């Protein structure tokens, strides 16, 4: 779910991006992790999924047919795509993780 959210944020308003990328800003809020921290934290807890060959639909490369990829490959591709379109104002948030 978090990886899907990463893929959708580029087309969202600045306010929506700020909420997801920055997490909670006020002590009275229910604590929310910044999105990148949540992705890394969740992936770190996926012991079983990282240890067995969980295959997901991959991406088309160089006009070749889509191939199955591991969870690790899927997360890496989605993170890289997200960082490529990340507004510069959120770089410091990303660099913390």
Total helix count?
6
Largest sheet: 2 strands, antiparallel
Helix and strand content put the structural class at mainly alpha
How much of the sequence lies in strands comes to 5-15%
- Specify Rg, calculated over alpha carbons: 15 Å
- What percent of the residues sit in helical stretches (DSSP H or I)? 40-55%
Number of domains: 1
The first-to-last residue Cα distance is: 19 Å
* Mean pLDDT score: 82
Low-confidence stretches: none
Q: Let me know the number of strands.
A: 2
Q: How do the helices and strands follow one another from N- to C-terminus? A: HHHHEEHH
Sequence of strands across the biggest β-sheet: 1-2
Global shape: globular
InterPro entries: DUF4487
Protein name: Chromosome 1 open reading frame 112
Characterise the protein shown here:
It comes from Nothobranchius kadleci. This is Chromosome 1 open reading frame 112. By secondary structure, this protein is mostly helical. The chain has one domain. Helices cover 52% and strands 6% of the residues. It contains six helices and two strands; from the N terminus they run ααααββαα. The protein has a two-stranded antiparallel sheet with strand order 1-2.
SSE map:
Layout: H1 2-8, H2 14-22, H3 35-44, H4 47-51, E1 55-57, E2 68-70, H5 71-84, H6 91-95
Antiparallel strand pairs: 1-2
Helix pairs in contact: 1-5
């Amino acid at each position: 779910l978090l990886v899907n959210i990463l893929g959708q944020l580029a087309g969202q308003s600045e306010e929506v991006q700020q909420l997801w990328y920055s997490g909670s800003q006020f002590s009275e809020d229910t604590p929310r992790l910044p999105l990148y921290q949540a992705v890394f934290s969740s992936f770190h807890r996926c012991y079983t999924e990282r240890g067995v060959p969980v295959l997901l639909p991959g991406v088309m490369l160089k006009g070749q047919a889509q191939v199955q990829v591991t969870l690790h490959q899927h997360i890496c591709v989605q993170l890289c795509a997200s960082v490529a379109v990340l507004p510069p104002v959120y770089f410091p948030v990303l660099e913390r993780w």
